[in-house]
Each structure stands twice: as structure tokens, then as C-alpha cells.
Amino acid sequence: MTQSPADLIITGCTALVHDEHEEIGFVEDASIVVRGGVIEAITDDVRDLDAVERIDARGQVAMPGLINCHTHAAMVALRGIAEDLPAEEWFNDFIWPIESNLKEKDVELGARLACAEMIRGGVTCFADHYFSMDTVAAVTAESGLRAHLGEAFFSSQGAEGLEKSLEFALRNRGGANGRITTALAPHAPYTVDDADLSATAELAREHGLPVHLHASESRDQTDNSLARHGRTPIEILERTGLLDTEILIAHGTGIIDRDLPVLEGATGQVAVATAPRGYLKFAWGPTPVRALRGIGVPVGLATDGAASNNSLDVWESMALTSLVQKSAEGDPRWLTSRQALHHATLQSARAVGLGERIGSLAPGRRADIILVDLTGPHTQPVHDLAATLVHSARAGDVRTTIVDGRVLMRDRRLLTIDLPSTVGELGERLPSLVDRSHGGRIQEYDT
Amino acid sequence: MTQSPADLIITGCTALVHDEHEEIGFVEDASIVVRGGVIEAITDDVRDLDAVERIDARGQVAMPGLINCHTHAAMVALRGIAEDLPAEEWFNDFIWPIESNLKEKDVELGARLACAEMIRGGVTCFADHYFSMDTVAAVTAESGLRAHLGEAFFSSQGAEGLEKSLEFALRNRGGANGRITTALAPHAPYTVDDADLSATAELAREHGLPVHLHASESRDQTDNSLARHGRTPIEILERTGLLDTEILIAHGTGIIDRDLPVLEGATGQVAVATAPRGYLKFAWGPTPVRALRGIGVPVGLATDGAASNNSLDVWESMALTSLVQKSAEGDPRWLTSRQALHHATLQSARAVGLGERIGSLAPGRRADIILVDLTGPHTQPVHDLAATLVHSARAGDVRTTIVDGRVLMRDRRLLTIDLPSTVGELGERLPSLVDRSHGGRIQEYDT
User: Which of A104, A159, B220, B443 has the greatest number of beta carbons closer than 10 A?
Assistant: First the structure.
């Protein structure tokens, strides 16, 4: 009996795996067999097995592709446009005025550049929350990445905002051969009123859609919400029924103690995305990761948009989550490298609703795999591989990025995106994109 | 009249320069002419000029090489050996027991690996504080790097400790064609007694040597010092005469308000080196950079050793200094990208006593230059070049590293160090190096 060749075999790597208790371990000299976009086996013997494509990964670690659990991909176009400012000025004086110039073509080029950056940094899936999302879906399809996409809306758009968000989600879910999942995407409790949040929750339940939104982004927002409404942003989510849905909350640095029983009692599936770089930059506090873990809420890693975060480097988010959490808790033993890797893998997969499909290297999981080169001087010697990955390796050490078994970057060469033409075309559009002389803005930041 | 060819001409770069007020600016399409290890000119026209070597640096930024103002280079051998621990356990249970096994050969191989990492990360000068420093001087000479070296000592060594530190400093200063400067290197006020600190100060003045030591590393140390001696570590430095010397203080996260007038009143040249990654990891507070700047103390960037910091990535120290300081001060407007670049350039050069020789690209300065590639997707587009350098670029974007006009890395290829043989040889020695079964340690951590 002959077996048809596998689509891809990766040989000689050290594979990051999870045991039955989700503890992280490493299998040395492993081979990974991929067929039909799925991991078929992780084995030590593939000598008799044919494959259409083979990758020799000696000296490299294979790990689940990183997941960027909250971003605004196209905002790479605004990377560095508004620096060293408090969030209010950043929104009102720069980002929201500039976004009133935004054309579909800007989103297309920005998203394409973002996909290039993410593929180069070992990201295989991103949760995007922005405008002109049909365009982002098309770029996702062409790039080969996996994505969880939501068309953002404000109540200031009237009924049309939520309608468009729903239409987008229904039209695109399952797109790009199943790599695209979709969400309803209200902007935040301070820009979407309670009636629209309630309607969002109803539609989410009716259509089986998740919800992705910003909430409790900073302590100031929580304090303002309490002063204006007598409720925290999390309590508003609860009251409007959103905690009964599958909900991905971006940031949550303003989550306070009284929010914890509310989140714990939620009947939906609640997750939080943390993007620590931007919080330091805005001088916000950190996401209360330890408290959230204490009540079983998965905390996924994210970068937010590059206009605030300056990069889409999820590797850095992983390291910073560990560092900032130790510092914030005053406890060097907390958030070890293995915990950080758990956030980067299974918790991030759960945060984007794909906990059964991605986030670990195991038979039956989608073949979203990155190969990380540890031969550089900055990653030698290796006494503790988890620490090497979290605290010494960098996004630039990712040599190969694979999604659904398809190689999107090989030896640091992008295979699905023409970077120079993307950068060139975007550059020509920037002067009109960043023009703020019209004096308008798409929304007011007033929490 | 004919002119002899220049040694090196770098063409087509964007050059980071300082104006007369030390404000950072950028000169586009610049050429840098190097002769005799020195920058001869930064000009826009080199058409008629011959050169032995030319580097086409279009799309790249030329900036002063980074300076690692406090490290223990050879400790890369222990990268990842003791993770997620408080400082006391880290020292007493791992580092100081392991260091009692340390042989000169371990230091040689560790230092060589460290030099490889630093050259790859755009570091052109490092301030090293460790043991077997003659070996580190030899590796520095062979690597082509610039270094500020001090033989560390404890009072537990008896009189020999300080003697050896002095002999090392006198024997090696001016070594490696002037690339090596030296310092006296007492470990810290909690491991070196007041008599030895006073003797160090006297010898420093007598021989015109700087002093490099750890002090006020954490708030705990300051509190313990106050409880035991009624004085802060900074007050001990003042009382023992060390603040009358050229002194480089590592860390200083425990510097408190009452220390500021003491530092401000110092008759010597005081500088502080900050290594923010390790402070987060040990859950220490940050160096009070804003307060130190307020009294005119230069704050240089550093990584500490890789056993605590996990990397010798000064680029990351630059970004983290900006991020952590914004967060610690609660002020997103503070420590802008241009301020971070000022720390990375002139302030770091002053911290290692080379403020007139390196730290800026200007005629007459030593030609310590790095070329940074900004064509990657994570550094595009560029709206604010200072922000791109600090918050988007990474150590891995350094393509070329030059010290005294000599190219040490070209297009990411190391030209002076054989990395695989260094990693291989070091690997063979690791089992006996990390053996702690003897139960000894070189020193006790008890501040």
C-alpha cells in the first residue's frame, strides 16, 4: 500500500508542544508532517515519507505562529505621525482628523504593508478592527494570512454603522478558504451608545458572531465612565448583554476590582487582548493579567495599530508582557517565560475564537507554523529554551512563516507580497492622507 | 595638487547629527569621509574624492555607534541560567556559585560571543566590569571594538582586589591602538568597605583613572543601607571621596530625593548607566532619569550582563528607556525619541568618559559609525525619523558596524569573529561552568 506524498515536511527542528495540562515542552529533532493544510503528525521518523516540499530546520525551533489579537493593520500608514502625546491629543488632533481622509486604497496599501510586517515577524493570524474591511479581507486572502476581521462603527454613524458591520461579518465569514473569521466591531462604550451595544449583542447571538471592541482602555476611561454613568465600561458591557456573547475586549488596562466578578460571571466567552508597548507610551497602566488569569479569562497578545505602537511586533508584546507584569506585580517569579509562551499560543488562539484550530502544534490543528533561528550570537548559548524564545530571540529571528501549510516567507523572503511597490504606492498617497487642514475629524475622543 | 585617497567613504546615507545645542537632526543624502580612524567630513559632494573603500548606504541611516555603558560581557555564557528570580536568589543560588568555577578561558569565549552580539546589534563601545579582564582586553583588541574596562573586586579579596584592579587599569589603558580605556572597578558599596572605597578614590585621583561600580542598584539596597549605616549608597560614595572622581554608577534605581543634592554638588564627573530591561525583570523601579537630567547628570544606556538581561541589545535599552520613563513619570510627552537618541549618543559617550571622542558624527570624532537599514516593512513609512529609529527599528536592522574607520560587520556578516567556533568551544565548557555541586560562592548578596 502506497501513501500519497505529504504536502510539506519540516525536519530536524525542536518543536514547541503543549502537554495535556497545557504545560509547554520541547521535542528535539522533530519532524512535522503537513497534509491538506493540517498538521498530520509530529514524529521522529519521516525517512520513508515523501513530500511535495521539505524544509530542513536544523538549529531552528518550530512553534505555533504568533497571533496578533488586536490591531488596526492599515494604520501602519500613520506609523510615527503623532508621537509623545497623551491619548486625547493623539486621537483628536491627529488620528481622527487624518482618518477623515482615509480612502479604500489607503486601507488596501496599509493592510498589505502590515501583512508584510506581520509575516516577517512570525505572525500568522491577526484580529483587525478598522474601516473598509472588505479591502482588508481581500488583502488577507492574497497575503495568505489568517484573520479575524470586524468593520468598526460609532453610534455617530447612525443605524448604518451597525448594519454595515453586520453585513461585512456575514459576507466575509469563512472567506479565504476558511482563513477569515469575522466579528461585529463596535468601537467602544464611549463612542457607541447603550442601545447600539444592546443591538450588537442581540445580532451577535442571532447570527453566532463574536464581538470585538475596545473597552476599559485606561483607568481614566473607567473613572470617567463611573462619573458619568455610575458604571464601569465592563459593567456597561454586562448591562447591554455583550458579556453573554463571545467577546474580545481590547486593552482592559482600566479593569478594576469590581469588574472581576462581573467578568467571572459572564455567560459568554470573554477574552482580553493586551498590547503593552502602547500603554507604556501613553503612560497608561498595564492590563491586570494576573487578576484576569485568576478568573480564567484568556489574555491574548496584541500590538494595537502601529500609529500608537510603532510596530506590529507580537514577539515584543510577548517579552514586554512578561517584563511589565513582573514589574507591575512587584514579583519576579510571576509571568515566567513558559507563561508568556502560553499567552502567545493557546490563550491568543482562544482570544480570537480559534482555540480548537490553532495555537498549538498538534495533529489535527491547522498548520500555522513559524521556524525560529537560534544560531545568532544573541540567542546563544541556550540554558533554558523558553527563556531564550521570550527574552533573547527577536521577531527578526523568524526565518519561515507558514499558514495552513503554505509557506508565506522562506529564509526571510516574502513570497506573497510585493513590498517595494506597496511602500512606493503608499508613499505617493501619504501627503493627502495626512493633511489636516480641513479641520474635520471622524469622531471626538471624550470618554 | 593631489590628495591621497580617503580610507573609507560612505555615500548616500541619511546622517544623524547634533547641532550646537545638541539637538538631533538629520542630513539627507550625506557622504561621510573617514581618514586615519577619524571622521574627516560629512558632505554632500564626494565625486572628486578617491577612497580605499566605499560603502553605498542609500536607504540607510548613519548614526554614532551605540555604547553599552555597563555590562559583564562574558556573562553571556550564563544567559538564561537563572530565570524569574528575585535578585538575592539570583546572586546567591546561581550566579555567585557558578562564578566560582569561572576560568580565564570561559571569560575569553564569553567575551568573544558578547562582542559578536554587540557588533551585530550596532554597539561600537562597551563598558565592562568583570574578572580576568586582561583576557577581555585581548578579545576587545581582536574584535575591533572600543571598550572601557575595569577589573572588578570585592573587599572579601583583601588588599589584593584593589591592587589587581589598579594594575589592570594601568597596564591596559591606551591598549588596542587607543581603543581601550580603563577604570578602577570596586563591585559595590555593599561588597566593598568604606576603607577600600576611599583607597579607590585616592588611587583614581593619583593616576587619573575613572571609577566604574554598582551603586544604589535597587530601592531595597538604599533602604538597607540607611538602616545599617544611616547613609544611602550615594552618600557613602560622597563620604569616601568617590564623587570627586570621574565615576560611572551602574543602575541607580535606588537613588532617592536626598541623593540629588549630593550628586549635584559632586566635584567629580558623575554619570549613571541605566539598563531598564533587567529592572523590569527583577521588579525593581526605574532609574530616576528625569531627576538626574534635572541636575545635569548624563544617563547612558546599558544592558547589564546577559545573565540577568538576556541580551546585550542596546537598541532595546534605548526604546525601553523611553517607554519606561514615560510610564514611570506618568507623562507621555517626556523622554521623546530625540531625547532617547541623545541618551544613546552624547550622554552615553560622556558616561564612559569619551564625550569628546565619540557619540556624534562630526569632523574630528573617531569614526565609530553604524548603518541602519530602514527598508524593512516594520520601519515604513517614515513620518518621523527619530521615532522610526527609537520605536520601530531593531538591533537586527543594523547592516554595518564600523569602529575607528574599520568595518567590523558588513551586510550583517561579522568580519573579525568566528562565531560558530566560539559557540562550539563555549558549549563544551558549559557543564563544568554551571556545576553548583561544590556549594561555594564567590561572594554573599546581603545588602
Answer: B443
And the C-alpha cell for B8? 573609507
Q: Pick the residue from chain A with its C-alpha nearest to B277.
A: A323
Q: Using CA atoms in the order B436, B442, B444, B447, what is the torsion angle rounded to 10 degrees? A: -130
Which chain A residue has its CA at the smallest distance from B388's CA? A80
Alpha-carbon distance of A384 to A371, in angstroms, equals 18
CB contact under 8 A, A84 and B330: no
Cα(B211)–Cα(B182) distance, integer angstroms? 9
Helix ranges restricted to H, A121-218: 133-143, 159-172, 175-178, 194-207
pLDDT digits (tens, 9 = 90+) for B209-249: 999 999 999 999 999 999 999 999 999 999 999 999 999 99
Grid look-up 464611549 returns A190
Coil, helix or strand at residue B109: helix
pLDDT at res. B327: 98
Q: Which three cell numbers stand for residue B285?
A: 523601579
Return the C-alpha cell found at B313.
Answer: 541589545
Tens digits of residue pLDDT in B159-171: 999 999 999 999 9
CB within 8 Å of A395: residues ≥ 6 apart: A120, A121, A122, A313, A314, A315, A316, B378, B394
Buried b (16+ CB within 10 A) or exposed e, B410-437: eeeebebbebeebbeebeebbeebbeee
Pairing of the two strands B38-43 and B269-274? unpaired
Cell of B360: 556624534
Question: Has residue A2 got a pLDDT over 60?
Answer: no
Q: Angle of helix A419-433 relative to helix A104-120, nearest 10 degrees?
A: 140
Please tell me the distance from the alpha carbon of residue B172 to that of residue B174, in angstroms, as a whole number.
Answer: 6
Residues on chain A touching B392 (C-beta within 8 angstroms): 79-80, 306, 310-311
Measured in whole angstroms, the distance separating CA B33 from the mean position of its chain's CA atoms is 26
Interface mutation target, options B83, B118, B318, chain A, most CBs of A under 10 Å = B83
Of the candidates B333, B328, B337, B242, the one whose C-alpha atom is nearest the C-alpha of residue B292 is: B328
Residue B247 CA to its chain's centroid (Å): 14
Judging by beta carbons within 10 Å of its beta carbon (0-12, 13-18, 19+), is residue B67 exposed, middle or buried? buried
Ordered DSSP codes for A46-65: -TT--EEEEEE-TTEEEEEP
Rounded CA gap, B206 and B200, in Å? 10
